[in-house]
Automatic annotation (TrEMBL):
Bias (Polar residues) ranges: 84-97, 128-141
Record-linked InterPro entries: PASTA_dom (IPR005543)
Protein name, UniProt field: PASTA domain-containing protein
Positions of region (Disordered): 71-141
Species of origin: Staphylococcus lugdunensis
Organism domain of life: Bacteria
Composition-biased stretches (Basic and acidic residues): 105-127
Length: 141
């Protein structure tokens, strides 16, 4: 019998396992010999996860035997934990490969607080009282 299994260490078509020890003699028609042939490295399809939730994508990819690497950045257009970009995508990769994601941290809180403070400064400016001084000269005869 010949079984087939994926094996990242052995090229496709090679026998990497058998149920009889090497150099062991067997009687013809007296033993059931099992050989295991390598199918090579298992290929996994990586779909497009852009604009999807990072945690869900990570869970799915890890269940398929892939590794996930993430970098984060602020984004005015993507909510927190949404995938902005990925590499690779829409292709087959070897099982055990790494998929890289750029994930949104949401809007930059420093910029938001700066905008808030700027607008509150504007409000303060609207409440200031302006003082005008006039000087008049009179001639008395």
């Amino acid at each position: 019998t010949i079984n087939q299994e994926y094996n990242s260490q052995m090229p496709k078509g090679y026998i990497f396992k058998q149920n009889i020890n090497p150099n062991e003699s067997v009687k013809l028609n007296d033993h059931h010999i099992v050989l295991t042939e390598s199918l090579g490295v298992k290929k996994v399809y990586v779909k497009d996860y852009e604009n999807k939730n990072y945690q869900n994508a990570k869970k799915e990819l890890e269940s398929m035997g892939l590794n996930v690497q993430v970098k984060t950045t602020n984004s005015d257009t993507k909510d927190k934990d949404i995938i902005i970009s990925q590499s690779p995508k829409q292709t087959e990769v070897n099982e055990g490969s790494t998929v890289e994601f750029m994930v949104s941290k949401g809007k930059d809180k420093k910029e938001d607080s700066k905008k808030d403070s700027d607008s509150s400064d504007d409000k303060k400016d609207n409440h200031t009282t302006s003082v005008k001084n006039y000087t008049e000269t009179y001639h008395i005869p």
